């Protein structure tokens, strides 16, 4: 099993140790990590094709915020807080829709697709109201290879394009921009801290222990590396036929994909993007997943599948086989992380040792410690630590 680590942050004195258990259960740390890590981070919402028409919109809810992404009459994709400026009513409800204007269902205040407030019933009843100052509150948007991302705050962190730059050459042949949705958003709550999902996603050592199917498919080819803001995992499908019928079907019937280079035809490729998103990339389709914090011990998995249009019967069947294979993998991972989460609550667990090969876990832990120095403490500090003024 190969591994590589590009250490961009220099030496971390705690590099040989995992994050301590209290970080996965503590309410005060949860508040701090949401503020310092999740709010300034990019979150994927949808594909550009999901908001192809003027007025088409999609929503994303996390950290108590509801964000609406929509395409304006000028063709520009924008994002706003889904909140009326009058009495804070949600403007659009649900995951998706299309509208000529956003009209508040409470008092009928109307906003243009570019966020301008243009309609207020009984306008003269509001002597202090300036329409130009009360448009929808914007949210920063980035479109990377056809996918739409938003972030609530800008703390100077890198763009999605910059984070993915080390692997852009590898991703380019997959033609993300031309992909279309295969399935709608799937949301599943998990009884684990959000970091637990990401730790498991990038963990290399559990593959041969807990995932018999992936081991049959990849043999000894599974490899990981950490490059700045992105973890990369990969495995090449072996030729030896699997004993599992769905795995064997996938191996035998995966069709040739003309736009991919030879080395990508039978490659399963995984990218984890800081801090809580991942792309699973296959020759037949791609999946994205993000794990959104709900509480110190719960999170929401949000998943969606995209692919290039392909009407070949074997491609449709292979995509179904892919789903069957990964449904088993997901069930195995859920069993694992729920029990890890329970162990994190034990008074016996502080930091655990991290091996040199666990480069992705090392990279993630270093970033958390950089943003929240208290993450270096083996035990939780007294309550109120995050609100104390540090001595200068």
State which percent range the strand residues make up. 25-35%
Write down the overall geometry: globular
| N-end to C-end Cα span | 47 Å
| Share in helix | 10-25%
Instruction: Give the C-alpha Rg.
Output: 23 Å
Number of strands: 18
Give the uncertain stretches in residue-range form.
none
SSE order in H/E notation?
EHEEEEEEEEEEHHEHHHEEHEEEEHH
Major sheet: order of its strands?
1-13-14-15-16-17-18-12
Mean residue pLDDT: 95
Count the helices. How many? 9
Most strands sheet: 8 strands, mixed
Structural class: alpha+beta
Note down, in words, how this protein is organized:
The structure is a single chain. The chain is an alpha+beta fold. The protein has helices at about 25-40, 160-165, 170, 195-200, 205-210, 210-220, 245-255, 315-345, 360-370, and strands at about 1-5, 45, 55-60, 65-70, 75-80, 95-100, 100-105, 110, 115-120, 140-145, 145-150, 180-190, 225, 230-235, 265-275, 275-280, 285-295, 300-305. The strands form 3 sheets. Strands 1-13-14-15-16-17-18-12 form an 8-stranded mixed beta sheet. A 7-stranded antiparallel beta sheet has the order 2-11-10-5-4-3-6, with no helix packed on it. A hairpin with a 2-residue loop joins strand 10 (about 140-145) and strand 11. The protein is globular. About 35% of the residues are buried. The mean pLDDT is about 95.
